[in-house]
Amino acid sequence: MTRAGPLTGLRVLDMATVVAAPFGATLCADAGAQVVKLELPEGNDALRGLAPTALYWKVLNRGKKGISLDVRQPAGRELFLKLIADFDVLVENFRPGTLDKWGLDWDTLQRHNPRLSVLRLTGFGQTGPYAGRPGFARIFEAMSGLANLTGESGGGPLHINFPLGDSIAGLFAAFAIASLAHERALCPEAPGRDVDLSATEALLRVLEPLAAEHEFEDVVRSRAGARATYTAPSNIYRTRDEQWFTLVGSSDAIFRRLCAAMEMPELATDARFTNNPGRVRHLEALDAIIAQWSAQREFTDLGACLEKNAVPFSKIYSIADVIEDPHFVARQAIVRLPDPELGSVPAPAAVPRFGAVAAAAPRTGPSTGEHNAAIYGPLGLTAADLAKLRAARVI
Predict the structure, then answer these.
(1) What is the mean pLDDT of residues 366-390?
(2) CA-CA distance, 172 to 107, in Å (whole number)?
(3) 150-174, pLDDT tens digit by residue?
(4) Residue 359 — left, alpha, or beta (φ > 0 → left; ψ -120 to 50 → alpha)?
(5) Starting from the edge strand earliest in sequence, which strands make up the sheet with 244-248, in order?
(6) Mean pLDDT in the chain?
(7) Residue 44's pLDDT band (boundaries 50, 70, 90)?
(8) Do 293 and 223 contact (CB within 8 A), yes or no?
(9) By three-state DSSP, how is residue 86 classified?
(10) Which residues share a beta bridge with 90?
(11) CB 19 within 8 Å of CB 373
């Protein structure tokens, strides 16, 4: 038998939209929390419209129960305040002051559940001159300095083709919720917390050395293509058969092994390359040597040589490569989520794994209001009550 996830018993009400905050709530569901997804009756979360079959919505909101509720209506607000009595954490991502405008300010929420914590994930936080601005991943990536690191040297900055800023903010959201659960376990009667999470500050947090480099070394780290400017060699190279691969040889020991793999032992004793600071200073020359060596070899032979000498490298994978890789297959890194419309949908497995046996794959995200009866029934609402609320577009 597998043990329940470590967040089992924690109840999270996710009324956020799009990616960042809902992703954080989903990570908690992966770890065993009961997460209820609250949407407007129209089901107009923008994430549902990013693909014809809403695949992103289905996988991002996996493992959640789904309810619909318009908290802007008096009847919806009244039902919401009943609903939160049994929840530990409320997750929202509206612009600051939005819940207050709907009559769901902090004091009101605390009167109805003093133990409730509220996680507010916005682009720029609850305070400051930018607090009211709309936030999207590319804005976070630009303002945090992340986009300034991406692109070719001398060229313009780039975004990657994925909302990475949202995902990083979601990781911080999950960490915050797990921290709240730990505090509640230590102090069951502790009052709830009002948590202010800025997505831009989350990205700043993971770019932690940049401010120190700027102050003490007068360095503004910028674009360098695929090359790292803090360790060498570390770049993407191309083989004779047009395969791209990444290689890291930053430690002195690994660099010596790379020299052996390349059958160029003299490079290990070259005064320019004997330590990492020297290799960084002369990385143009070093990269040119490695690029020429790579371009003369087929990837299969090159890879065998690097692997034999324990040099870290990898082909640049597409998602097709990921799905077919024997290591990922053996670990079931991609699982199939049951789905009532599509049968099943492939998605990444839960990370990390709490124990040797992975938990069963959860179902894909719910349809709008799918679990209204199951969630609202215990609050005393009958089928007739639900029908009346549905007719009024409250649910």
Answers:
(1) 97
(2) 25
(3) 999 999 999 999 999 999 999 999 9
(4) beta
(5) 234-238, 244-248, 313-315
(6) 95
(7) confident
(8) no
(9) helix
(10) 13, 118
(11) no
**Residue 378, preceding peptide bond in cis (omega within 30° of 0):** no
Report yes or no: 59 and 364 within 8 Å, Cβ to Cβ.
Answer: yes
Compute how many other C-beta atoms are within 10 angstroms of the C-beta atom of residue 117.
25
* Distance between CA atoms of residues 240 and 256, nearest Å: 24
Annotated catalytic residue: which of 166, 196, 218, 321? 166
Residue with tokens 């932690």: 208
User: How many other β-carbons are positioned within 10 Å of the β-carbon of residue 111?
Assistant: 10
Nearest-Å Rg of the Cα atoms of the chain is 25
Are the C-beta atoms of 116 and 194 separated by less than 8 Å? Answer: no
User: Residue 311 and residue 298: Cα distance in Å, rounded?
Assistant: 17
DSSP 3-state helix, strand, coil percentages of the chain (rounded to 5)? 45, 15, 45
More confident residue, 44 or 289: 289
The CA distance from 57 to 365, in Å, is 7
| pTM listed for this prediction | 0.94
Name the band, by pLDDT with cuts 50, 70 and 90, for residue 356: low
Burial call 190-213: b when 16+ CB within 10 Å, e when fewer: eebbebbbbbbbbbbeeeeebeee
How many whole angstroms separate alpha carbon 17 and alpha carbon 247? 38
User: What does the chain come to in residues?
Assistant: 395
- Which amino acid, residue 251? S
In angstroms, the CA 258 to CA 247 distance is 10
Tokens 């005064």 identify what position? 271
- The answer, yes or no, to whether residue 1 has pLDDT greater than 50, is no
Q: Which residue type does 62 have? A: R
Mean pLDDT of 119-131: 98
Confidence of residue 51 (pLDDT cuts 50, 70, 90): low
166 assigned to active site: yes
Q: Are 166 and 135 in contact (CB under 8 A)?
A: no
Q: Tell me what pLDDT residue 104 has.
A: 98
Q: 163 preceded by cis ω (within 30°)?
A: no
pLDDT at residue 49, rounded to an integer: 86
